[in-house]
Design goal:
3-stranded antiparallel β-sheet; 4 helices; about 40% helix
């Protein structure tokens, strides 16, 4: 069974009129179809990924620093390590009237336990994405 991506491409290859600039000889059609068949999963994943990411903000850059909280208003001597994480997101299609593109910075501080939870959550999200894109 052909994937939804390959079917229109194969249709295009097979149904080009001879006078069309994209007309192919029979031998070329067979070679193109074989190449598409071999790489159909990769092509499908690439097209799905490209479609998903068209309007979704993406992580452009990040910055992190480790700090030590020496004291607080309640305790005189704390000495707790804190990670400050800055994430900068950008959206590829958010230009409005040729103005400045969407640029959103998210900053937060995490304890060691919170950082562990964040890393685990991101790993779970990655695994779910890989499973969703698997054919």
């Amino acid at each position: 069974m052909a994937t939804p991506v390959i079917t229109p491409i194969a249709h295009f290859i097979n149904n080009c009129p001879d006078r069309d600039v994209y007309a192919f000889e029979e031998k070329t059609k067979l070679i193109l179809q074989e190449c598409l068949k071999v790489r159909q999963k990769e092509l499908f994943k690439a097209i799905v990924f490209k479609t998903i990411t068209l309007n979704v903000p993406y992580l452009k850059t990040y910055n992190w620093q480790v700090k030590v909280v020496m004291s607080s208003d309640r305790l005189q001597n704390v000495k707790v390590p804190i990670l400050q994480l800055d994430l900068v997101f950008e959206s590829p299609n958010s230009k409005v009237n040729n103005s400045v593109p969407f640029n959103n910075k998210l900053s937060f501080e995490l304890t060691k336990e919170e950082l562990g939870t964040l890393v685990q959550t991101l790993e779970d999200a990655k695994q779910n994405l890989v499973q969703a894109l698997a054919i």
